[in-house]
# Entry
Amino acid sequence: QVQLVESGGGLVRPGGPPRPPCAASGRVFDTMAWHRQAPGLQRELLGLITVRDRTTYADFVKGRFTISSDNAKNTVYLQMNNLTPEDTAVYYCNAPASGAWGKGTQVTVSA
# Structure
């Protein structure tokens, strides 16, 4: 059974870079995706990474967020830089091919 578990969230000062990795155990995945959902807003796609490490990003995170993977560890990472309070959200990892979602990790950006 596909299981996705996110970690690495928490309280972050504006401009600080947390690192919330999404760890996927079990089968080998195809494309993996990161999403987020801020309070009162719809969930939004941040970016994708394929098994060949090709990445695509939403325009609003280009240059600030980077998705990478360690296939040997079944782990996908989301590096976030230059965070602002508007980045406060629950961050989710998703395996589109299987429809699996993690439970998310809360990132709060506040001084």
User: Anything to note?
Assistant: The mean pLDDT is 86. Residues 15 and 82 are 4 Å apart (CA to CA). The chain has no helices and eleven strands.
